[in-house]
Structures are given as structure tokens and as C-alpha cells.
């Protein structure tokens, strides 16, 4: 199994492409969904956020007030860094367990849907392919304002909090331009799906994993044999 990173700018249409891959039968590990799970009431993530930001960023029922917390961190880079230091390690732990599960289920490749793929950089060395979903700046701004009900200045703050889209495109192995119609985006996504399906990269990964497992078993067997001889 090999890993395909999927990212883009906020409101460029990454979630749309992610769903297209899922509809094609490809497992998707969604960092946004995981980030919500790791801050549910009673979790370690929620407790750490409460300690750093106070009870006011939580609803009376214990759920995180994501809108309020978003307003706080997107206007303060230091507080945003603190929040990321809490949430990201928990998301990575959940990601690793999901990858292991999909590996043993025998999937050829899976999608890692990470909005901050390049900003954090931790998973990049393990990716075989990186897909960036892009669109022009005007379209991105309008979509974000409409989607989240933000003013133009609020939307620009959120866009500026991420790595510039142009830089992300330079680091990509594949780019999906989502400025145009949904049909064009779907066609490009299906073309990538077929390209990944035709790849044999998953075989190399499985051979490496089997080699490591065999090495570990051989070492364990040797250690047991040494202990038996000493007795």
C-alpha cells in the first residue's frame, strides 16, 4: 500500500475531490474529521485546550466552540501555534492506527486528506504522491466568504494563515484545478485514480514491510535460541 497526500488551500475544493476518491472506493483518512474526534468531551485534547484557552471556548454541553476558537487563533499566530501543538500529535496518532488498519485490509493505496500537509510537514516524507487542489484567488475568496459566512477581511485572514497556494502547487506531484466546472474536476480526479491504480508502488512497500517483519522474527528466534543454549 502506498500513501497519497491530498491538500489545497482553504475553500479550493479539497473536500469535494476527497469525496470523489471515496466514491471511487478509495479509503480516505480525513484530518479534519480526526481533529474533531480528538477534541470531543473528555478527551486529552479537549482537556489541554481547556487549560490553554479556558472554558469560554466550549459550549455548555462540553462540545468545543469551533467558531469562537477559530476567531481567536486565526487572529493570533502564537495562539494558533499552541492549538496546533495540542491537536496535531493526537491526529497523527489516530492517522497511524488508520494506516495500519488499511494496510492489513490489503488496499493498494489510500488518501491522506490533510489541509495543513505542507505547513506541518510530518507526513510528507512518507507520501508517494501529493495532489494539490487549486483554484484562482478570487474564486477561493468568494467561496470561503459564502461557505463560512465571513466578511472579506475575515476570509483573507484565514487564507493568509496558510501557506500560499502557489507554493503548495510547486511541491505537488499532481494538481487538480477546481476553478471550473465540477465535471472537469471529476474528470481529472478519475484520471488520477486510474493512474494510481496502474502503479506498482504498493508492491515495493509490501515487500519492504515483509522484509522488516522477517528480520524481526529472525532476530527474535535467534535471541530465544541463545537463551535456550545458556540454560
UniProtKB/TrEMBL annotation:
Q: Name one GO cellular component term.
A: cytoplasm
List where the protein spans the membrane.
207-228
Specify whether Kinase is a keyword of the entry.
yes
Highest rank taxon of the organism: Eukaryota
| Entry keywords, A to Z | ATP-binding, Kinase, Membrane, Nucleotide-binding, Transferase, Transmembrane, Transmembrane helix
Q: Which family does the similarity line name?
A: Belongs to the CoaE family.
Q: Which NCBIfam families match?
A: dephospho-CoA kinase
Q: This protein is called what?
A: Dephospho-CoA kinase domain-containing protein
What is the name of the gene encoding this protein? LOC106150501
Amino acid at each position: 500500500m502506498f500513501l497519497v497526500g491530498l491538500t489545497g488551500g482553504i475553500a479550493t475544493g479539497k473536500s469535494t475531490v476527497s469525496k470523489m476518491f471515496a466514491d471511487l472506493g478509495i479509503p480516505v483518512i480525513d484530518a479534519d474529521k480526526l481533529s474533531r474526534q480528538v477534541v470531543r468531551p473528555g478527551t486529552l485534547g479537549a482537556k489541554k485546550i481547556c487549560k490553554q484557552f479556558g472554558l469560554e471556548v466550549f459550549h455548555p454541553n462540553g462540545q468545543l466552540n469551533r467558531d469562537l476558537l477559530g476567531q481567536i487563533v486565526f487572529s493570533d499566530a502564537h495562539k494558533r501555534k499552541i492549538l496546533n501543538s495540542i491537536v496535531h500529535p493526537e491526529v497523527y496518532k489516530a492517522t497511524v492506527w488508520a494506516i495500519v488498519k488499511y494496510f492489513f485490509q490489503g488496499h493498494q493505496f489510500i488518501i491522506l486528506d490533510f489541509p495543513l500537509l505542507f505547513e506541518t510537514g510530518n507526513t510528507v516524507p512518507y507520501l508517494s504522491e501529493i495532489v494539490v487542489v487549486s483554484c484562482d484567488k478570487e474564486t477561493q475568496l468568494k467561496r470561503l466568504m459564502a461557505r463560512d459566512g465571513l466578511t472579506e477581511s475575515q476570509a483573507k485572514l484565514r487564507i493568509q494563515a496558510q501557506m500560499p497556494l502557489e507554493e503548495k502547487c510547486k511541491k505537488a506531484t499532481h494538481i487538480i484545478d477546481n476553478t471550473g466546472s465540477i465535471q472537469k474536476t471529476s474528470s481529472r480526479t478519475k484520471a488520477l485514480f486510474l493512474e494510481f491504480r496502474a502503479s506498482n508502488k504498493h508492491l515495493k512497500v509490501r515487500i519492504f514491510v515483509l522484509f522488516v517483519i522477517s528480520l524481526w522474527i529472525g532476530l527474535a528466534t535467534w535471541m530465544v535460541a541463545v537463551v535456550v543454549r545458556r540454560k
